[in-house]
Amino acid sequence: MTDSHRPLLPRAVPVLRVAPGTLQVGGVDGDPGLRVGPLPDDGAQALAVLLRGLDGDRPVGAVLAEAVAAGLDRAVVSDVLDGLRACGQLLDVSSADLLAAAHTPAARARTEVELPAALRTGSAGTWRRRRVAAVVVDGATRVGVPLAAMLAASGVGRVHVRDRGTVGAADTVVGGLSAADEGRPRTLAAADAVRRAAPEVDLRPLPPGTVPDLLVLTRPWAAVDPLLGHLHTARVPHLVATVRGEVGVVGPLVVPGRTGCLRCAEATRTDAAPGWPALATQLREPPTARTGPPAGPVTGSTGLCAATAVTALTQALAHLDGTAAPLALDAALELRSPDLLPHRRAWPPHPACACRTAGPR
Ligand SMILES: [Zn+2]
């Protein structure tokens, strides 16, 4: 760990006194923790104050100098920091993360809540990567708007929800569009919902020709829309996140050149059921076009939409953070009532599809 890293002990990690002169940091609720002591009583008190003050703003060297000034042994404090880091309770904020952090008091308070989870995913600079990321959510749906709001609240710097038309009464959902939005343009109402969750977010659409870090497809049967074939050649990473009937569907997450594509999944479906393309054509059409199955944007109970949005959030952040392979690569996570737990359904690359050789590696 270099001196440019700044130790952060999240506020949620308790610093407890277990005996006179002995502290326990973390170690409740099954987490690993660290016991320190016995120290002289005033030393334990000084150490507790020092640890509680690790806010990610000061480099390690400054923290150790502060410890010495408070009468603590430099080597002991250094060992404590190492021990807390080893058990996962102490996080290190890199210079890049610090520069990307918000500066107004309110924004800092919100960041403080989100930062530990982002840094816990692994590599330095995760927070900075989120702050500079741009996500486009296609569809101000009962999944799309809560997802956009959660992405922005989780630190993603630019989140744009695109849609057409006006809000209907059934679009109202917790964390998304509200009853007061009925009749308003969907894009403006969605932007307000995102701003409520994250006032600092950049809501502007991306300039023409700019590739977002992720495009989220939230319409029920967007995956079978042939007009989306250009996403692969335009090298746009895209994630399906929707509700179809009573099933929440998150995935596949398509990373052009690295994974299978949406056409792979359709080819696999067609192998299993040759009549699938004819059904898919009807599913992607608006319900007014024929008397076939409805495919409107309003679907899914509140619980199902919320669980789907949260599952999509985890996959989107895993992709943006770049710290772990998202489960939705070459697969979909499906959620059904009553447990709403995601179950993985594989959608491997189809041997007849040229997508993996067509894009960049
Ligand atoms: Zn493919």
Automatic annotation (TrEMBL):
Key words, A-Z: Nucleotidyltransferase, Transferase
THIF-type NAD/FAD binding fold domain residues: 133-317
Keyword ATP-binding in annotation: no
GO molecular function annotations of the record: nucleotidyltransferase activity
InterPro entries xrefs: ThiF_NAD_FAD-bd, Ubiquitin-activating_enz
Domain of life: Bacteria
Protein name in the entry: ThiF family adenylyltransferase
